[in-house]
Amino acid sequence: MADDLSANRGEQERVRTELARLQDDLVRLEESEQVLTQMQKVLGGTSKRTAKQSKSRKTAAVPAARRSNGKAAAGKQAAATGRKAPKKAASTKKPGEPTWLELTTAYLGGQSEPKSAAEVSDALTEAHPERTVQVTVVRNTLEQGVAQGLLERSKQGRSVFYSLATTATAPSDS
């Protein structure tokens, strides 16, 4: 009986750890979905998923007792693997706040030399501590600016740097 009890507890711990990992994966996927949805809105695209499909999407419910254990296990697992514990999903832009594209172009407009996505992200984090800044969002925004002709991309080895497009800063002759 003692061996069975020990095996049962070990299996419970294994399942809790797996659940915590899956919850962490789900949080990252949901954050990614929000970023992609925001980018799609900015680019003017429409979602292929209809509102009806979004409402009918089912998520697995975890009992409250396990949910708290799962979060604790996620924190322990994150500490053991050196990764960050899962965060809450990033909030969306509030009305009246500048867009990421406006923030990045304004920042790069004040720079004398091209900057990497990481440098732009660090500067935006420092300048706007109230907003959640993710390097991938900044990188995608910078690429959006390049696509729209607002920014220029240059490569130095494996590094990519961005600057304000020279046509965007030149005064018009008309």
What attributes characterize this protein structure?
single chain, mainly alpha, Arc Repressor Mutant, subunit A, 2 domains, two-stranded antiparallel ribbon, 7 helices, 7% strand, Putative membrane protein YkoI, coiled coil, WH-like_DNA-bd_sf
Please tell me about this protein's structure.
With 174 residues, the protein is mainly alpha-helical. The protein folds into 2 domains: 80 residues, no CATH class; 70 residues, Orthogonal Bundle (Arc Repressor Mutant, subunit A). 60% of the residues lie in helices and 7% in strands. The protein is built from 7 helices and 2 strands, in the order H-H-H-H-H-H-E-E-H. It has a two-stranded antiparallel ribbon with strand order 1-2. Strand 1 and strand 2 form a beta hairpin. It is elongated, with a radius of gyration of 22 Å. It starts with a helix and ends in a 5-residue tail after the last helix. The C terminus is likely disordered. This is Putative membrane protein YkoI. InterPro entries: WH-like_DNA-bd_sf. Keywords: Coiled coil.
